[in-house]
Each structure stands twice: as C-alpha cells, then as structure tokens.
Amino acid sequence: MNQIASPRLAELPALELKGAVFTHRGQTLLGPLDLRLAGCRCTLVMGPNGAGKSLLLRLAHGLLAPSLGQVRWAGKPPRQAMVFQRPVLLKRSALANLTYALAVNGTPRRLRRPRAREALERFGLAALEKRPARVLSGGEQQRLALARAWLLDPEVLFLDEPTSALDPAAILAVERAVQEFHARGTRILMSSHDLHQARRLADDVLFLCRGRLVEHSPATTFFTTPATAQAGAFIRGELVL
Ligand SMILES: Nc1ncnc2c1ncn2[C@@H]1O[C@H](COP(=O)(O)OP(=O)(O)OP(=O)(O)O)[C@@H](O)[C@H]1O
C-alpha cells in the first residue's frame, strides 16, 4: 500500500521497543527485541507458528507488559484498537455491540445509534443490526469487530491474524477494511501467515522466528531479496522451524 501522509500523522508517535523481552515461567518466548515503527505504514508481522507474532502485537498494544526492557510510545500514546483472530463480541445484537462501544467511549447517547448504523452500513452489515452478534458467521463477526474499531477512530490499529479462519470473500472484505483504515490515516500492525495477503497489503514486514526479530524490511525488498536464509525459506513455502 502507499504510505499515507495525512496531517494528523505529523503527531503520531513512533512505537519503540528497546531490549523488550517476554518470559513465562523462566522461558523466553519473545525477544530481546529492538524496533522502531514510525509513520503511517501498514506493517505485516510474519513468521512460522509460535514465532511470537501474537505476543509482539499484545506487547505493542499494552495487553502484556514486557518482562524486561521497554515498549513505549515516543510521545503521547495514540488512540488504539485491536482486532483478534476470534472476535470478542458481547451477547447482544450487532447494533448494541456498537452502541455499547460508543457509550464506553463517551459518545453522547443521541449520536450512538446513527453512528453505529453508519458503521454497520459501511461494513455491509446494515441488514443484520438486530441479529445477536454471536450467531453471526465468522466473516460477519470479523466485519462487526472492524466496524467497532472504525467507530473508535484509532490512530493505530492492531490486527492479530484477522483472516485466518475466513473464506476468500470474507478475507477480501477484511483486506478492503484494512485498506480503508490505512487510507484514513491509521497506522496498521497486522500479523498474518498468508504471503499473498502480505504482498497485497504490506509496506514493510517484520519477520519473526522463535521469538526473535530476524528481519525488518520494506515489503518490496523482503519478498524479492530477503536478507536471511530463514526468510527466504519462508517465502518459498519451505518448512521453517
Ligand atoms: N500467555 C502465554 N503463556 C505461556 N506461553 C505463551 C503465552 N502466549 C504465548 N505463549 C507461547 O509463546 C510462543 C509464541 O506464541 P504466539 O502466540 O505469539 O505465536 P504466533 O507467532 O502468534 O503463532 P501462531 O502463528 O501459531 O498464532 C508459543 O510457543 C506459545 O505457546
């Protein structure tokens, strides 16, 4: 995707990881990681199963604290939202999931329904507003999660394998949504296994293997001339452990 130069991005702080490590019961699962993400990029986090992609996203979003080192914003922490592989939705209607998010966000009551309906419309869910969110299909649930994130107008959006359980049409809908967020000036940090998806979306790629950051390159470089044998093997579809 093209990098966005939106006025609001002038103040979007960089995300900095300095010697960040995440351990569990004495075992290092991630790190040490040194990394700086700046600008309005769409960054794809790639790597084999268990490489630490989800952990990195959760650390970056503040859902986990590093066991060692630092994860910080070089400035005022931006508005953030996160979309998970399995959407976390309330046991309420699709519309009520959105109006609830707006209420938590402090949106005045009279504005909640119109805004929620606008978001449902944008994500192709208008006809489903009364349906209980938890009976929606996987693709519909993911679009609802994206609609909820959209309403929060995040400056940074984290997505953890948002399409891994979806069919091609639903994948396309999610990718279009990601592109719309990005076009609106939202920085994207998204994990994916899917090389084709990464080629379609990524400005740059973070390649993780066994909890270590093996490569951080512009997408064009990563896919054509990866710097490491591990990334090369991953791109060729060979088994990378
Ligand atoms: N809360 C946790 N407690 C203990 N171990 C964890 C925890 N979260 C993740 N791990 C372990 O850390 C490693 C990295 O996990 P993570 O989910 O980040 O990998 P991933 O790259 O996202 O994998 P996948 O592609 O399979 O989703 C794995 O070995 C996992 O079992």
Automatic annotation (TrEMBL):
Keywords: ATP-binding, Nucleotide-binding, Transport
Keyword ATP-binding: yes
Start and end residues of each ABC transporter domain: 15-235
A GO MF term: ATP binding
Pfam families named in the record: ABC_tran
Keyword Nucleotide-binding set for record: yes
SUPFAM superfamilies the record matches: P-loop containing nucleoside triphosphate hydrolases (SSF52540)
Family affiliation: Belongs to the ABC transporter superfamily.
Protein name: ATP-binding cassette domain-containing protein
